[in-house]
Design goal:
- It holds the Pfam family DLEU7.
- This is Deleted in lymphocytic leukemia 7.
- It comes from Molossus molossus (Pallas' mastiff bat).
- The protein has helices at 3-30, 37-51, 57-81, 87-101.
- The protein is elongated and about 45 Å long.
- The protein has one domain (3-102).
- The chain starts with a helix and ends in a 5-residue tail after the last helix.
- Helices cover 78% and strands 0% of the residues.
- It is mainly α.
């Protein structure tokens, strides 16, 4: 794997945080929908471990795990939002789908 894959994971993570802050935060106050904190904690742990690695097989495994975990988080958020009948959720889902498109398999 290369640094390009790492850059995509980092960029997608930044996009996800932005969507969570600007779109999902207000939506969650309006309507309750499930957020899967276990996935976020796992993602944080993987990224923490990844930050301690240097290039090599373990780095590649951790990067792949972070990539897959991030995709899982985004997909679960989309599923959670699918049941909300509001215009705001449509915008949030579109933003989340864009994040998935920017995270091709590595």
């Amino acid at each position: 794997m290369n640094r390009g894959a790492l850059a995509r994971v980092v960029d997608s993570t930044s996009e996800l945080v932005s969507v969570e802050q600007t779109l999902l935060g207000p939506l969650q106050q309006e309507r309750s929908f499930p957020i899967h904190l276990k996935d976020s904690v796992e993602f944080r742990n993987i990224c923490s471990h990844l930050a301690l690695q240097i290039e090599g097989q373990q780095f590649d495994r951790d990067l792949n795990a972070a990539h897959q975990c991030l995709k899982t988080i985004v997909k679960k958020l989309i599923q959670s939002l699918a049941n909300l009948p509001s215009d705001a959720h449509v915008v949030a889902c579109a933003s989340l789908r864009q994040i998935l498109q920017n995270l091709p398999d590595i």
